[in-house]
Amino acid sequence: MTAPFLPPARPSARAARSDSPWIRRWSGGAAPRFTLICLPHAGGSAGFYRPWAALLPPEVELLAIQYPGREDRFEDPEAVSMAELAAAVADSVAPLLDRPYALFGHSMGSAVAWELAHELRRRELPGPRRLFASGRAAPGTAVTGQLHRQNDDVLSAELVRLGGTSQEVLDDPGLRSLVFTAVRHDYRIIETYRPPERPPLSCPLHVLTGDTDPELGTERIRERAGGWADLTTARTEVRVFPGDHFYLTPSRREVVTTVLRRLDPSLTTGGPHTWPSTP
């Protein structure tokens, strides 16, 4: 006896709304309660956050932003400014703000997250429950330079200083060229970025960094949480982890635990499982 014909399942309305080249989705149960939107560092990709998916409970849906000009978006036109980048990200996430959400940005991504929050507020869309700023001083106070105008040797030395880029990649001419193209473009955006004067946000701000991070170490963090405390009317919290600029990799579980506890303490203490899970 042949099985009855069943029409193909239709994607959920939410899945259809998240069908954007800007968004990568790797986690989330049938009915998540929270959304975590993650923005990568200069030269980084959405894949930087992919290991987080295994550490998140089904109550949290992870949406990682994929900037143009890298990986599967290598041929897509790049944003010419921070304002254009934030507006494009806002276009992609606007249909997905139907539940409480938080923004997490590392390094350049922290500035993108801050600009995104303001852009969403300008559009009168729901604001983030919390904003996590990692590895960079606040917009308007972070030290910038002209690295996007420098040659490959100078750029390579900067990547070595920050860590996070393997020597094998830097030694491979093909991979090196791809990485430098994305890095130089992102550095141009962040180094020419001049944040406008705007009212502070109203959500809590959580500043995360490594204790030996050359961009935002423990000394800089003492100054009004790296300047972030002046950008919200709500509470600002600081958490310092062991490690350098890319402390997130060796401290991944601890960072995810911090995010989950701030989103909702029950995410790490309630239910039949303990989160983050073991990847």
Q: Please, could you describe this protein's structure?
A:
- By secondary structure, this protein is an alpha/beta fold.
- The chain starts with 12 loop residues before the first helix and ends in a 10-residue tail after the last helix.
- It has a 7-stranded mixed β-sheet, sandwiched between helices.
- 31% of the residues lie in helices and 14% in strands.
Compose a concise summary of this entry:
Helix content is 31%, strand content 14%.
List keywords for this structure.
single chain, alpha/beta, 9 helices, 7-stranded mixed beta sheet, 279 residues
The ordered string of helix (H) and strand (E) elements is: HEEEHEHEHHHEHEHH
Strand content: 5-15%
State the end-to-end distance: 43 Å
| Gyration radius, in Å | 19 Å
Helices, by number, come to 9
> Biggest β-sheet: count, sense, barrel?
7 strands, mixed
Number of strands: 7
- Runs in which pLDDT lies below 50 for 5 or more consecutive residues are 1-11
Q: Portion of residues in helices?
A: 25-40%
Mean pLDDT: 85
Oligomeric state: single chain
Order of strands across the biggest sheet? Answer: 1-3-2-4-5-6-7
Output the structural class. Answer: alpha/beta
Shape: globular
